[in-house]
Structure to design on (260 residues):
């Protein structure tokens, strides 16, 4: 374990850039995961932890978790609370933060034509929404998630934290175009979730594998091109006066109906 004392240390500067920049996360092939539980989830999932940052207080408060991570991480750095605040993305840091190698789970989609129930996300922008959606998808056993390249960065610190470790375990793949992805996977039955009274109620749908339910942008929903590329349009029936649901809430309802 190495003690770092300067904010100008390259390791500290690197962590700060990973916190702030999606572009740098992509270029460097790394991202950060913060919090005791999330860091331990990374370890348990077999993710490559390049660097583990910890404060003295956090080490003493979580000795068992510290011992696991120190023994597993390629590098461990003890830093002060002041330095930790620079790399942290939370208001009340727990004193555990890992720099992790980006995960490539695209190969797990090679068998998509053989079965499975998938979630497709188009232009989801709120990292809190995305994190919650990924957490819900994993909890209910979704086979994988297809994300368009204009979604917010799946390795945004808020997404990683909000997913509660789902980013380490859930198969995910990125595509520039859902219509093109669906065209390349012709056996995939596709369902566009829309706010449209004429669409089929999701409660009446029987989801046959392999299938994918598409959820769109928080404000604008699914693009017309993507909706038109899907085999069926579905909607969540609502009896109240609200016209629509939050994207993560809608995703939870749709996921439940798809996998039940």
């Amino acid at each position: 374990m190495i003690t770092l004392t300067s904010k100008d240390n390259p390791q500290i500067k690197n962590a700060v850039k990973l916190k702030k920049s999606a572009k740098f996360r992509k270029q460097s092939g790394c991202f950060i995961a913060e919090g005791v539980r999330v860091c331990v989830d990374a370890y348990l999932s077999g993710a490559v932890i390049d660097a583990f940052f910890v404060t003295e207080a956090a080490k003493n408060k979580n000795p068992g978790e510290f011992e696991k991570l120190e023994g597993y991480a390629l590098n461990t750095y003890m830093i002060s609370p002041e330095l930790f605040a620079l790399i942290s993305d939370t208001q009340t840091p727990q004193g555990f933060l890992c720099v992790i190698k980006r995960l490539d789970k695209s190969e797990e989609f090679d068998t998509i034509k053989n079965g499975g129930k998938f979630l497709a996300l188009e232009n989801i922008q709120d990292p809190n929404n995305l994190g919650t959606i990924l957490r819900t998808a994993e909890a209910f056993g979704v086979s994988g998630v297809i994300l368009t390249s204009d979604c917010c960065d799946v390795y945004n610190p808020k997404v990683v934290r909000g997913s509660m470790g789902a980013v380490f375990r859930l198969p995910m793949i990125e595509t520039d175009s859902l219509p093109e992805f669906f065209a390349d996977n012709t056996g995939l039955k596709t369902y566009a979730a829309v706010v449209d009274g004429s669409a089929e109620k999701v409660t009446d749908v029987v989801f046959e594998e392999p299938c994918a339910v598409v959820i769109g942008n928080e404000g604008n929903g699914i693009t017309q091109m993507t909706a038109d590329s899907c085999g069926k349009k579905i909607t969540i029936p609502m009896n109240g006066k609200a016209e629509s649901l939050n994207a993560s809430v809608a995703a939870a309802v749709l996921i439940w109906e798809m996998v039940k």
